[in-house]
Amino acid sequence: MLLHIYRVPEALFVAVTVITVLYALAKTHAGRTGRNIMLAGIGLGVALAVLRTTAHEFPKVFFPAQGAVPDTAINQRLWYAAVGLLIPLNILIAVFCWKRGAKAGKIAVSVLSSLASADLLAYKAWNVLWAPLGFEMGDNGIISDVFLLRLAGWLIGLILLSVYIRFLYKCCMRLSEDRVLWNRPGGEPGCSGAWALRLTAALMTFVLAVVIYGLILSQWTIKTRPDWVPQLGFESFLKFTVGNNARAGGPLFPGWKWISASDHARGGYLENGVLVLLLFALMAMIPAAVLFFRSLRLRDMWQNPAQLRRLRSDNRHNRRWAAVTLASAALIMLSLTLVYEIDNRPPPVPEGETYVIVYTDGDGAEHELEATEVEDYDTSRIEVRIPLSQVDDYNLHAFEMNRSGSPNKAPRVRWIVIRKPGSAAYGVGLDACDVCGNAGYYQRGETVVCKRCDVVMNTNTIGLGGGCNPIPLAFRVEGGSLIIAMDDLIAGEKEFK
User: Between the N and C ends of the chain, which has fewer C-beta atoms within 10 Å?
Assistant: First the structure.
């Protein structure tokens, strides 16, 4: 559940922040025409995202030759388009988005904003739409608590973003529409608050162009980079923007891990680091902060108590919109830092429990051995014995053995044992699987969970193999003990190299 609470904002936060500000800018300076142009771009972006989602689910239909969606190639083309749109858009915002700017220039800003919005949604929204189809269920179906919890996390992420977008938009529009906010102390009309909107849009489009340009450079080696593409002399900043910064949190969040491009195991949702998301959150706070502070005092004259109440009510609403915008952005940042850190804490490692290694000689006499003595005997005559009373409590029990006695030279073989619910049967397997390797398993409540992919095991299938189930380990029950042949454990050592 926690995974998708931060994955959705992680994927869409920058895109929806920029689109919201550009939408407000287009509506402020080009009126209904600008609004309609932006809605067309947003609709196009959603349609492209749905198309990418469908192509990802049915790749052979759309890409019969490859059999897979060339996501990297598609993303690169979207990056090129984004840089080509954002650079002129940034210039046009500075030139035309002011009170006396030419109407044609304002329409051009709306058109470029619309195309940039479509590009951003096609780039980022598809993997959020596809996420429920890609939930790792293991042996659990969609009508299960596992699926419903992950769906709940996905929906919480979307709700957080929706609240944030709604109130950020209200702040942006209030700045440009409420002329009273900009009155001078005596009530005389002052400037328009659209300057804060223009400043925010200009900063965002510039920083986003730099970040995407950094992504393009990160995909090129020195040999493949075309000669006509400059590096502009600030490669260190570009490396910072694409997430090659240190993984440690630094003085702000010591010990916390930043999300970065190298986190392929988590689905590659982000190419830029959490610090870049924080930068966009701070830029988005410009309209909210200006609105809040301009609403701290009355800025118009009143002639009766009703007008005074109206002015105070408007100011309260403005401050509330600004506060909710700030709070929702803070919650999103919290999900990308604290929730991420909690979700990615190493799971508890079960302690290796005790067992007995028994060697049966040619006369039938039994001798107990240490793990380091196994190599000196015929391993076909050696067994590992675990008392049934030790593993009869329906909990997960972990065991490990290192024959060499040196943890740095030979792999430790690990295995798990659990008594299946409501049964006298046992599930026994190596603490590894064919899908996730030797990441292993741990017990969470009454369930067994893979440490790597967080799939919840069906306890009754442990020992049967397949999927993310533990690799089966042969055993027998005899004389009140669960017995495993030493040769089978030695054969399993290869899974832990």
Answer: C
Average pLDDT, the chain: 77
pLDDT in tens, 212-265: 877 777 666 544 555 655 555 444 444 444 443 333 333 333 333 333 333 333
Give the pLDDT mean for 305-318. Answer: 82
Q: Compute and round to an integer the Cα radius of gyration of the chain.
A: 30
> Domain boundary residue among 343, 368, 393?
343
The count of domains in the chain is 2
Q: Bigger pLDDT: 231 or 162?
A: 162
What's the whole-model pTM score?
0.67
Q: Name which of 463, 454, 480, 382 is nearest 417 in CA terms.
A: 463
Take residue 174 and report the two structure tokens written for it: 């209030």
Are both 209 and 271 inside the same structural domain? yes
In a domain, 9, yes or no: yes
Q: Are residues 325 and 367 in the same domain?
A: no
Residues 470 and 431 in one domain: yes
Do 363 and 221 belong together in one domain?
no
CA distance linking residue 221 with residue 110, whole number of Å: 35
Amino acid at 64: P
Residue that has been written with the tokens 């915008």 in this structure: 325
| In a shared domain, residues 264 and 404 | no
Residues 155-179: what's their mean pLDDT?
Answer: 88
Residue for token pair 């689910």: 57
What residues contact 162, with CB distance under 8 A and at least 6 apart? none
Instruction: Kindly state whether residue 350 falls inside one of the protein's structural domains.
Output: no
Q: Are residues 80 and 28 in the same domain?
A: yes
For 433, phi and psi rounded to 5 degrees?
-145, 170
- Which residues, at least 6 apart from 294, have a Cβ–Cβ distance to it below 8 Å? 181, 182, 193, 318
Q: Is 47 helix (H, G, I), strand (E, B) or coil?
A: helix
Closest CA to 6 of 346, 455, 456, 333: 333
Give the range of the structural domain holding residue 360, as residue numbers without chain letter: 356-496
- Rounded CA-CA distance 69/194 in Å is 43
Alpha helices (H) in 220-365, listed in sequence order: 235-241, 274-294, 305-334, 340-343
Note whether residue 308 is domain-resident: yes
**Cβ atoms 475, 426 nearer than 8 A:** yes
For every residue of 9-40, DSSP letters joined together read HHHHHHHHHHHHHHHHHHHHHHHHHHHHHHHH
Spatial separation of the C-alpha atoms in residues 383 and 483, rounded to whole Å: 6
- What gap in Å lies between CA 283 and CA 274, rounded to an integer? 14
Q: How many CA atoms lie within 13 A of 155 on its CB side?
A: 6
Contact indicator for 245, 115 with CB cutoff of 8 Å:
no
470 contact partners, CB below 8 Å, separation of at least 6: 416, 427, 429, 430, 431, 432, 433, 441, 457, 462, 463
Same domain, 82 and 214: yes
C-alpha count within 13 angstroms, C-beta hemisphere, residue 99: 5
Same domain membership, residue 398 and residue 315: no
Sole residue written with tokens 């959705």: 8
